[in-house]
């Protein structure tokens, strides 16, 4: 490592009597076979096997000529080699410097081939663009048109269509111009056709492009696109053929469904942030329709016979029965945004689509005593706000989340239908709690808990949600709260606290062992680039003797590769320190763009070796993040600091204490030990057996 790379190469070439050492380079023999350069030579580990090979510039020159060959076999082989070598940044730089991309554009623009050769060409193009040497905006219109044509043609190889969709997906977020071009050329109808194929990869890439278009669109465009997709029944299709297909749902598809759900729910944001305008005729009519639907049968005497004053007082009385705080001017109640007009929309939807339930709610409460009535309007406004918070309406999409609700895709007008179920739940819980007006916030708190607990069970349909949320009544919530409180409240007697402290070291050792075992099993990590979620995976695991960390790239679908198949190693003895969150180099690199909070919470890095290299991780979940950071801290001889350690320790301590205190059930433990009695004045009470025997 002390000599310049050129003299190392010269030494190797001289040993094998090879002239022109500058035409050769070293590359790793295993794994991704990266070329060794002055900038990455420090990453070579002891024990790595290197291979002498043609230098990247020679290889780039050879392939540059090969892809221009008239012999189709030579051309196809060169393109195939180019597709695999382009993953290497040194080679990619050399090839691009020779204007190699121009040649690739030429093959695509002028060629009529739609088979294997084209697939290799597009794969090479994707890999070269991945290094960010060239801007996507430099692509020619002819090239883009050709890529679009592969997506729009029927008789094209599936691998070509997948790659074409991927290329377009990468283009869309880079500039408004490219977005408009792709949106115009690739119709939503065409994407829906691709979604309906049986090839899962093609389906995934079509969904990826659809999501990229939705995210890059303006609010108005997004609304129009979503309206069109609704007309085409995309929701029913996803529910039937993707969520309930025989194949399990992959992480990436789950993420796209989460984004689609998020984008759909965010269409409510505009109404949620708009206050009611008391001068708007349309909004006033909606408000009046609520009163008329509830009380029209009661006030059959034509209202026109009443004086204006009488009519006004009658309306005010009816609005008070509807549960508006400001009954003379109910529009005031809807001035608060959020939930703004969304609350009015929900109330009107409930009164029109379930008129019987609506009338029952209002009339039942107007016949109760004043202080025991459940105010419909006030509850609706608060409930709409709660649902917006639970469903994250108006919040930007996370770049990594996969938490979508299967029942969202099982129902048109999901938000309104969910509101209809929950507003009836408010009335039911109000009665169960025998609540008065002062308990309003308390009731809504219980309702929020009922909704979140039921949603966490991931019900597959709204019917199932309704059944479960109604089964989770107030007494059940009290029981759950009681159990949780008992779990949290350990007996706080001094002897028990002392016992806890004595048990801690033993249980912490148990947690350490579990963390190291988890590291030995290993975990699959994703690589996330600055531009998009990537489907590249790598695996990392600890050797059984806890001396070496093994890692390497793996293919999709490999769950626990054997240690021998992971080429890279870091000896634990070389590890210097663990970095998390903002301290990690791979999160600092991206700080120029929009810093992603999710990635920050899951990022950690190991610094190792004298030169302080870093191995960067992004954990798949917070749980994995906690286990890995704890395990690495144990290897570094430091304290385990994750929140998971504390919860695990609490669970183990609580179980251990319960077992130890079983015999003391119903016995009160004193805070101080009972006093030891004084010794007796004499010990003559002792019975002497020897005298008795004589």
From TrEMBL:
It comes from the Eukaryota. GO terms for biological process: actin filament organization; apoptotic process; cell motility; phagocytosis. Signal peptide: none annotated. CDD domains: PH_ELMO1_CED-12. One of its GO terms (molecular function) is SH3 domain binding. The keyword Isomerase does not apply. Keywords: Apoptosis, Phagocytosis, SH3-binding. SUPFAM superfamilies: ARM repeat, PH domain-like. PROSITE patterns: ELMO (PS51335). This is ELMO3 protein. It comes from Thalassarche chlororhynchos.
């Amino acid at each position: 490592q002390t000599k310049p790379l050129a003299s190392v190469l010269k030494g190797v070439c001289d040993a094998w009597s090879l002239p022109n050492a500058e035409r050769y380079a070293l590359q790793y023999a295993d794994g991704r076979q990266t070329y060794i350069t002055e900038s990455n030579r420090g990453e070579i580990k002891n024990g790595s096997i290197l291979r002498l090979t043609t230098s990247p510039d020679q290889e780039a020159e050879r392939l540059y000529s090969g892809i221009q060959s008239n012999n189709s076999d030579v051309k196809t082989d060169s393109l195939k080699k180019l597709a695999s070598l382009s993953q290497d940044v040194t080679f990619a730089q050399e090839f691009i410097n020779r204007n190699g991309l121009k040649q690739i554009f030429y093959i695509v623009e002028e060629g009529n081939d739609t088979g294997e050769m084209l697939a290799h060409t597009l794969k090479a193009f994707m890999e070269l663009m991945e290094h960010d040497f060239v801007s996507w905006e430099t692509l020619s219109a002819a090239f883009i048109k050709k890529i679009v044509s592969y997506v729009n043609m029927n008789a094209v190889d599936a691998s070509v269509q997948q790659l074409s969709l991927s290329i377009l997906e990468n283009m869309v977020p880079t500039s408004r111009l490219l977005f408009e071009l792709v949106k115009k050329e690739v119709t939503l109808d065409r994407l829906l056709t691709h979604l309906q194929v049986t090839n899962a990869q093609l389906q995934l890439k079509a969904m990826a492009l659809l999501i990229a278009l939705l995210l890059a669109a303006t609010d108005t465009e997004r609304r129009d696109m979503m309206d069109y997709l609704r007309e085409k029944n995309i929701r029913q299709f996803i529910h039937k053929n993707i969520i309930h297909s025989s194949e399990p749902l992959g992480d990436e598809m789950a993420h796209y469904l989460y984004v689609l759900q998020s984008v759909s729910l965010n269409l409510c944001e505009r109404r949620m942030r708009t206050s009611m305008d008391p001068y708007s005729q349309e909004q006033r009519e909606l408000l009046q329709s609520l009163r008329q639907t509830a009380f029209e049968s009661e006030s059959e005497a034509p209202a026109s016979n009443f004086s204006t004053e009488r009519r006004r007082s009658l309306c005010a009385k009816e609005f008070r029965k509807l549960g508006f705080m400001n009954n003379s001017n109910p529009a005031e109640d809807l001035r608060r945004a959020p939930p703004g007009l969304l609350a009015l929309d929900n109330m009107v939807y409930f009164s029109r689509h379930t008129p019987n339930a609506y009338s029952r709610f209002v009339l039942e409460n107007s016949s109760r005593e004043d202080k025991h009535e459940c105010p419909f309007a006030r509850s609706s406004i608060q409930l709409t706000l709660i649902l917006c918070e639970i469903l994250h309406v108006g919040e930007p999409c996370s770049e990594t989340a996969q938490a979508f609700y299967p029942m969202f895709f099982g129902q048109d007008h999901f938000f309104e239908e969910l509101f209809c179920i929950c507003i009836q739940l408010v009335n039911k819980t109000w009665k169960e709690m025998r609540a008065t007006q002062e308990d309003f916030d308390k009731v809504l708190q219980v309702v929020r808990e009922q909704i979140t607990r039921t949603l966490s069970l991931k019900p597959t349909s709204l019917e199932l949600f309704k059944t479960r949320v109604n089964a989770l009544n107030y007494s059940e919530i009290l029981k759950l709260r009681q159990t949780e409180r008992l779990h949290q409240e350990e007996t706080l007697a001094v002897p028990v606290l002392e016992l806890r402290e004595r048990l801690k070291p033993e249980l912490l050792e148990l947690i350490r062992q579990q963390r190291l075992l988890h590291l030995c099993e290993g975990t699959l990590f994703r690589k996330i680039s600055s531009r998009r979620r990537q489907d590249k995976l790598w695996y990392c695991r600890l050797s059984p003797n806890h001396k070496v960390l093994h890692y390497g790239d793996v293919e999709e679908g490999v769950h626990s590769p054997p240690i021998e198949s992971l080429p890279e190693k870091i000896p634990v003895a070389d590890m210097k320190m663990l970095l998390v969150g903002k301290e990690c180099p791979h999160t600092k690199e991206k700080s120029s763009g929009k810093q992603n909070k999710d990635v920050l919470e899951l990022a950690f890095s190991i610094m190792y070796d004298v030169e302080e290299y870093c191995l960067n991780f992004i954990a798949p979940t917070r749980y994995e993040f906690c286990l890995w950071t704890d395990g690495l801290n144990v290897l570094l001889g430091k304290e385990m600091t994750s929140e998971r350690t504390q919860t695990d320790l609490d669970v183990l301590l609580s179980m251990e204490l319960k077992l130890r205190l079983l015999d003391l059930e119903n016995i009160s433990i004193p805070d101080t030990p009972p006093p030891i009695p004084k010794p007796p004045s004499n010990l003559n009470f002792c019975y002497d057996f020897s005298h008795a025997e004589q």
